[in-house]
Amino acid sequence: MIRINHKIIINLFGVLLLFNSGFMFLSTLVSLYFSDGVTLEFFLAGMIVFVIGSIFFFSTKNNVQQIQKKEVFIIVTFGWLLMICSGMLPFIFTDSIPQMSHAFFETSSGYTATGASVVENIENLPESILFWRSTTHWIGGMGIIVLAVAILPLLGVGGMQLFSAETPGPSGNKLHPRITDTAKRLWYIYVGLTLAETLLLNIAGMGFFDAINNSMSTIATGGFSTKNASIAHWNNNPSIQYIIIFFMFISGANFVLSYFALKGKVNKFINDEEFRVYFMFVFISVIIVSFVLYFNVDLTNSKFDHPQIYGKFESSIRHALFQVIAVITTTGLVTGDFSGWTPFLTVFFFCLMFIGGSSGSTSGGVKIVRHLLMIKSAFLELKRSLHPSVIIKPRYNGSILDQNIIHNIYGFLILYILLFISGVFFFTLIGLDFKSSLGVSAASLGNVGPAIGDFGPSFTYSSLPESGKYLASFLMIFGRLELFTVFVIFTPYFWKNR
């Protein structure tokens, strides 16, 4: 049998639950402030999670503080599921989302920062529930930063070790104490960006409650908003949308680069290959979408209100900027229904769902760095075909890459495609049309949120069959945890005593 340090696993599960309960108590205070009628229910949910977390933590306090790779895989995967299961309680206890499948979907969408929702009328929800929805994004976003920057590089998962050398933190096969320092510094940036956006949105004319919620959603690249129309509710205030555009873009970049930029090393941004590709991809995509919107789309003829405050040209650029960045960074906030902006743009945005933001960001999806290295690898293979005797090795940011990283990326992309196709197959099996199946599978696995077809930006996921909601939820989790992190647990090799 495999030797697993059960005590430290349970101990850390306790920490996660205590962390979760703390935010539930914060939401309880929000409920008390707004007198939204669910204060007691929220407090009860928080207490249950707190008690269970305390039992887990204190009963295993005396354990060997040494974590091997296998324990980390278990903690990450099942810890995420534990957070989701405990995070369902406020929705169920307050009767905001009483159905189990709906609550599991909404909570999974929250913690994985996907932003897909089953709630038909968001504005009817109590303020504390709206705050809790946004908080699940924020918690998940923080978790992803730590996961991507501090943990996955150690495990060699998903090619994340590419930037581990630049990370002010760990190295080696075991978790290093400096991970704490790494996480702390990055969380400072995370909290600082959230507060900065909240302040700017408030100054621009958004109410404070809406500002803090939408800021948490933006920085976590989530997608939950406090309004039924999402950010389209503020289409009459371009300054609000430009602020969100900026912070979405920053959140889609590597947080390690943000750390160095704040230290005055701005050249890290400029010299980073992934960031340059990220910027150029957004730039070119915005030009294409803006062109089509300006010449071929009547934005005033839409489900969403599109007042052209500064004329059609500015409006086209703004909505193109917003939606391109929202989809590439997998934020999922919307200012318009991109699935109704001509068939070309529907296909274009569908393709963008497979891009993803930068590695080490809160974005989901495949990630820019993987696409970049795959393209580089393809061109190198062409060169090898012409010069078979020449030794050519791929480079990234001036450094020669280990071939294992390339193999890792190949494996990731194969698994990603297989999981996407399997999702499409299953969704069609349960009755969805092909277009909707493509959209739901891509949007769930890529943590994008709004899809195409019957589940586009103008619609919710409430009509998705119950089995479909569970599948979409697990696709979100798989996509968020970089596939390998979850898949490896289901291999017989993992459970052998080696």
Which characteristics define this entry?
498 residues, mainly alpha, two-stranded antiparallel sheet
The main β sheet shows up as: 2 strands, antiparallel
Count all strands and give the number. Answer: 2
The value of Rg in angstroms is: 22 Å
How far the N terminus sits from the C terminus, by CA atoms, comes to 9 Å
Mean pLDDT: 86
Tell me what the structure shows.
With 498 residues, the protein is mostly helical. It has a domain at 262-495. Helix content is 62%, strand content 1%. It has 19 helices and 2 strands. It has helices at residues 6-34, 39-59, 69-87, 89-93, 100-111, 127-155, 178-204, 208-219, 238-251, 255-262, 267-271, 273-296, 312-328, 343-352, 368-386, 403-429, 434-445, 466-480, 484-487, and strands at 395-396, 399-400. Strands 1-2 form a two-stranded antiparallel ribbon. A hairpin with a 2-residue loop joins strand 1 and strand 2. Helix 7 packs across helix 10 and helix 16 (403-429) runs antiparallel to helix 17. The longest helix has 29 residues, at 6-34. The protein is globular, with a radius of gyration of 22 Å. The protein starts with 5 loop residues before the first helix and ends in an 11-residue tail after the last helix. Mean pLDDT is 86; it is low at 154-177.
